[in-house]
């Protein structure tokens, strides 16, 4: 098994013997986080996930012709945003109601 790194039994024994990390108090960068600091970091990370507060977009299901979708998808990432912009542009000169 050349080229593969393995952990020997001696390494495992040495790791188990060292026990918990003990901060020597000299370097603040080496200080372990307190439970409050860890929780604040977790909370801050959770706030970043999901749709931004106040987002005005709404999820829906709609069917388009395959060739229309293929054209937008072929334009690369952001195709849904470009499709939304094309519909918005169309609305500037057309009425979305029937008979127009």
UniProtKB/TrEMBL annotation:
Pfam families: BrnA_antitoxin
InterPro entries with a match to the protein in the record: BrnA_antitoxin (IPR025528)
Protein name from the UniProt record: BrnA antitoxin of type II toxin-antitoxin system
